[in-house]
Amino acid sequence: MNRGMNRLESIINTGNGSVESGKRVFLVACLFALCFVLPAKAADFTIQPYLQAPGTTTMTIQWEMDSLAEGTVTFRKGTETAQVLTVSEPVKTPKGYTSPPCLYAATLTGLSPDTKYTYTVSSGGVSQSGSFSTFPEKADTFTFIAYGDSRSNPEGHKRVVANFRRHNPKFILHSGDFVGNGGDRPSWKSQFFKPLEGVLNHIPLFAAYGNHERRGIMLDFYFAPERLYYSFDYGNAHFNFLRSWKSEDEMAWQEKDMASSKATWRFAVHHIPSFNIGGKCGHWGQDTVVPLFRKHKVDVTITGDSHIYERFHPMVPLNDPKGHPITHIVSGGGGAPKYSTRDHPCVASHRSMCHFLVIKVKPESLTIDVRTVDDKLFETFTINKKDGVYDEAYLASVVPEEAVKMTLKLGGQVGFSSDAIPGPDNATKMTCAYTGGDPGFPIKGIVTLSEESKENYIMEPKELPFAVVSKEESVASFRMRSKSKVTVTGGGAISPPLVMTYHYKVGQVDLKLKGRVRLPAKKVALYCKEANPGYGWNKDGTLDSGRPWELGWVPVGTPAPQKRQWRYVSFAVDPKKLYGDAEEGDRLFTDKVPENLKGWYKPGFDDAAWQKGLAPIGKGKRKIGKSMVENPSAWGDGNILLMRTTFEVKDLDYDLIRLAALNKESYHLYLNGHRIRSYVWFFGRQNYRLKDMTTEVSKHLKKDTNVLAVYTMAAEKGVNAVDVFFDGQTKEGRARLDKVMERIFAPK
Fold first, then answer.
1. pLDDT for 129-154, tens place per residue?
2. 554-732: which CATH number, 3.30.70.80, 3.30.465.10, 2.60.120.260, 3.40.50.720?
3. Could you give the CA distance from residue 375 to residue 161 in angstroms, rounded to a whole number?
4. pLDDT average, residue stretch 568-572
5. Distance (Å, rounded) from C-alpha 513 to C-alpha 408?
6. What are the extents of the domains in the chain?
């Protein structure tokens, strides 16, 4: 790829009087005249200078301008004579994208190894400075930083990267998902380059290809990795970058490249993890690239995709217990919305948090510090290796890969089912079955009732031997009694929850798999059809009052939800300030309001000046069936919506109360001035979602007038539609539902 045209010159330190005064006056006069003859807006940086393609004698500096503007890079080492590289032509813009903005690249050559340089990029009347160090020809002690998944949350990303420079890294590794939409050029500025200002002009970054990079066009444009997979060396370490979407050409290239390396320490960087228990449970390349890593003695893999920190004990295959162990690390904490983690015997450490890795390489040790957004040390661990042999402590912690593979495989293929619901007077037959085909090796274990279900159920026998061998052979049955009445929810789930546990072992690792007992899909569909017709809409987007409510449930309060008048107002919040990050756990959704709206959710607040209308209150059109419809009430221009309504309650005789919420985005929900729910995430589809809130609502629901209030935001593309109400179930309603349940699910 053409990275722009360069012209190298030298600046001579001439001292005083090196230019004749007459020529100087004439030049100044000409420039003064031009200021009046050719007035023009000065060009500016859209992306400030950043470092790329470092080497022992080379470094590339790139920047982006808002218009065509010839630039110069003035650079020097120490107090030596400065040199100037002129860049006259921008990098060719990819097909389908327009210029300006214009990307420029200056490749500095003939530099001295392991040497610090300072530089200034000047273009269009603006300038930015930075510094860099060339790679050494030999190095056995150095530090680098690794992180990934910086997308969609520039403020969280900025908090992470603000810590980088104080650790003096030689370079940065990014494991992919730089921005939310890798095909959207402006997102690269706002979500990636802007948070890294003051960092990338001093430290070069190496990029891995993530799924949010889409086709990788803009990743290639800004970082130009060869074929989106490549490798490089720094001192005694070798780094391989893979695409996570393998091809025969790439695998052949990686094989040849890894085989040629003689490095002491070896790293593989790719986006989708090969081993991952929390988050998205990634398992890319377990049977293809992982054997390649073992063959060529990769020490550590660094991945992302799951927005968590997760480190596995070193792993080898069961059939090669003395083989080369690999430590797999998932590091997706660069600012993207965090996912949940979970315990597992093969996982050494995990947490849902924004973070980064500080990796310190020495001749016989590798130390990895895991640090939070506040630069606090979460954990540190060291891998010791001498003459290619790991120390005894490291080898003693090795676990079999199959223990992780089976957790993911069995989790979707071992199931518990029953044709009927159990009762106190009848022991209902239930089945445990494995439907995943040949597991590769036999697994033996036992099925028991989970601890949380023992209070309500009795299993006969208490333990059931169960072997996973093949699809045909892996079936066993047992019986279950209940200690009290069992019901079925509107969605077809047994209540109280009936949960089973399969205890099994892989190698020396004890594992557990939990699963709910499921009822037959056809019976559940029939039950839901009769008991749960759901909510329908009129053509104008309002709830269909003629459609029957779910059997056994009634709206809480009057008027009915589809007839309630809402008061609402919208205002704007800086998109960068919609979310903040807790040090650990879920991200935080803002609840800030202008001063004149303080206390907006309390019963006594005066909302008479707000707009008035029926729900759903919407921004943009909403799809109902095959049609796009306008919402009954228009949201307004702001990205934040406040809405309030009142409803009257005559009695509180409800056994259960649940929330029905139509919303695509994060929200806070208030009842009579009390926050009763906060949801921080988004939904892919726009429909009413139900959640049991009996405990939360019962605390604050009262007879007479109640105030319900919602704080929410517009989705990323500016659309959303919001409606909220409560359903209640009385004893009489439950009795009607039980008749349907008994007819469909009672034991024959």
1. 999 999 999 999 999 999 999 998 89
2. 2.60.120.260
3. 10
4. 94
5. 10
6. 1-137, 138-397, 413-519, 554-732
